[in-house]
Predict the 3D structure of the following.
Amino acid sequence: MDVPYDITSYVRVLKLASTPSWQEFSQIAKIAGAGILLVGLLGFLIFVIMIPITGGL
């Protein structure tokens, strides 16, 4: 593990990183929110389907 090389690579990545614009951020937030809602809905549907199979809560 070459520590000076690791630090320079981290610095290089930080220099390339930039703050997203408001439009880019809002689009990413919408997509992430839709994904969270989709996973939650899928889990709820599996829960509703399993209630009759297992005989209740």
User: Anything to note?
Assistant: The CA atoms of residues 27 and 33 lie 10 Å apart. The mean pLDDT is 90. Residues 30-57 form one domain. The helical segments are 3-16, 22-54.
